[in-house]
Model the fold of this input.
Amino acid sequence: MVKTTPLMDIQGLSLQRSGSPVLTELNLCIQRGEFVGLIGPNGAGKTSLLRCISTHLQADSGRCLVDGLDASAALAYRRSFGSAMAPEDLPADLSPRQLLSIVAAARELEQIPEQTLALAESFGLSRWLDRSIGNCSLGARQKTGLLTGMLGQPPLLIFDEPFNGLDPLAAFEFKRTLGEWTASGSCGVLLATHGIEVAERLLDKAVLLLNGRIEAQWTRAQLTELRAEGMDLESAMVQRLRDHAAPA
Amino acid sequence: MHLAALVVVAVVLWRPIGLAADRLGDQVGAYAALYPWLVGLVFVALTGLASSGRLRRVWMSIYCGLWCPQPQAARHRFRAWWSILLVTSSCSALICAVVGLAIYGTYSLHAVWLGALGGGVGPILAGSLVGSWSGLAAVQHHRPAMPRWPDRASFSDGLGRWQRLRVSSRWRSSALSSGGLLAVGLLIPAGSGVRAMVAGVLALILCVRLIVLMTSAADLVFGASQLLAAQPLSSGHWYRAHAKACMPEGLVLTLLIACCVHFLSAPAAFVLGTCLLLIWVLLIDLEWVRRYRLRPRRRTIAWGVIAASAVALGAQAAPLMPLLMLAGLIALRLSRGKHG
Done:
């Protein structure tokens, strides 16, 4: 039996901020072609985990390997994933096209790939591409942020609440594209979201994060079993959270 | 382009404007002595005329086409209003200083402040321009929304273009450049020759431009470093891009400032010293932006220590130096462990 190297392998990751633990001894694997959803209440550590993976935050201990590389191989490591920029962080004085052009150059691409422009078209972003981001709607900024992560189709794609502000058509196209990319096995996706009902149908694995620890995981087969029992991911998650909150 | 246009206007038109102001000053001075209230009323009427109707549109075309920042949204109205008010008041002060010189032969600070505060053109124009969305639309009509950007650009080119965009925007909109113009109006050397006046004005404008260039470009690098933290960019990428964007203009500005200092009849050693000092400032800032790219507060502290030391030395307060250095070290130590 051939043992495959996971696309992303988080081993014993811990992070403290202002003396309080944010992530504690966290372990998580994502295989190539896998679509993993990170769910949990506010303050569970979802965003912090994504920021540790994308090197915005430095973990206190443990390590994260993407495509077999850890953050010490800085440039190669960063080439192995794409992280969507948050809409509120985008620079108001650039247009989406200019920002994408800078990100493309940073990724050593000669210009914005046709694939990215086609995605912009399918997201309904084309008419906003040459306006300043400061003049763009929240949806247009969210779409721009998503494209910065998807540009060049890196092996691992990381998104934090990607459905915020997206119109139904763009959300549909976004999910369809990610579904196609993961189905082809060209990349893996890690997505943090509160929109469980939106993500449930796409996920190969759902990971419930609580107080910086992985509280539960459901594989696709388990999710199918849940549905067969008349439950869904949302009710399973709520049950877990209530169990956790109940006094011992 | 913007700077070059200012220089050309200043050099070509200074002399004829000065002569015309002389003649006008004689006439106005004579009438003002005989009929002071009448001259005052005419001034108010002219001001009202200049800020209404078709003339206001002409002002807008000139002003919005050349200088003012493009308001992106309603929340930018106050910034646009403040910027227009400052720049028009500064111009008003400058004109009053020139007219005051022409009429009285001496530099009158009261006349300048009166001109700046009482010149109705600035407040009325600014108020009417940004008081409505049609005013904002007029500004947007005069300035293109986004500059051209090539399809293929390296990271250095892209960052350089972004820095130029940011520097131009700050140069137009910041209180620094507007305040600089006001300072120009107030600091014209009284009783000097025309050549020295032009050189002084230009030196001040160039210094303001250099400060805007250095601060805005560095701020952008600090902000973009956070934004692009997940991109595969090394420290060298940032350093080269920043140097490529800032050093050429910085060196040209340095040379121009040195020329202006020369025209102010400074000795050759002082001119050379100014030139070397500014080049040192450019190089040291380049190095600090590289070193403190992810901890921008340290650069601020480092410049603060140098500025304080320079002030202390200038005031011959050398005994304060150890104290200043100690304060700087403590500030640097305190900033460690925070984001800066």
